[in-house]
Amino acid sequence: MLTKLGPRVLRRALSLAAWGIRAGRWTVERAPVQAHDALRLIVLDPGLNSPGGHHFEFALLLRSQLAGLRRLTFYGHASAGPFAAAAVNVRPIFRDDVYPHVADVFPRVYRDMTDAMARALGAIDAADLQATTIAVSHTTTIFQLGALAQWYSSLPAPCRPKLFVQFQHPIEWLVEPCSERPRAIAAAKAAANVLAAAGVVRFAANSETLARRISFQLEQPCALMPVPVRWPDAAAVGAPARGVIFGFFGGLRREKGALLLAPAIASFTAQYPDARFIVHTPPGSDPGAVHSLKLLPQVELIRKSFARKSDYFACLRRARWILLPYDPEPYALRTSGIFIEALGLGIPAVLTAGTWMATELAARGGRGLV
Hints:
single chain; six-stranded parallel sheet; 15 helices; 17% strand; disordered N terminus
């Protein structure tokens, strides 16, 4: 595995990819969705807090595909800002961090977080709370799951919407120390039981491995949900740039290989000075890795989130290879939209063995190096 063998192996993969560039798809069909004009859909997403990332992309995709709905409402975070609010009509009800990394006694943190989120859910418009409404909890964490159970079970039965709970991370994600995780899973199972007993509730995850794991942990059926992707118009994508250019997108964080990638790029560019790297380092990226890369003239750092999806795709298309040296422990279960987008545009990828991406690459015959 790349993460276990270190930068030397990644440099070898870069060399093979560069050789392929010098020497010389998944296809996705977009079908219109016919929406029922009487359907009412609400999306509950504390992570909808900026005009970027998969939370915002999911909202834009729903808005474009379900424009015929009688009512489509997004309940997001108070920090969403005017652009996101205008783009998808976000109603800001959530105020707590959607991904809190806390190292404390789990019961106390769980109680405080779920109570706060449950109070926020209490601000949902009463007109949206009907038995004919479908409510979607997007990228649900353990804290959101507990809050949903509190809020949903407290509603009068005629006001309980059909609830769709979607996961993209393991139940125990965000729970530290590891010794607290059994209690976290037990709390999640109890919350899932409350939800299932209170109304029409369905659980889903966006990878088969994660769906099986959550189904086992919650003792509830967990379906496989497709990964939504908004594709660019073919004419707007353009051709890849000339030369040996590698790209890394989505935030240079540790679980995405920040500590592996920075020294590997430094060593590789010292040996191959004609190679170029585009590295996306928005806020939240590892500061040490960013500092190391900004000293290299062959590296172009993009320090902000992309304002528009078209800007992102234009930058992505400049790369001849996409680098995804992700940690296989979390990414054996988690998916990657960037991986799907790269292969959909015909851009090969360098992947870590043991990840969901490596499994999909082998299963679907995509181009890349593992």
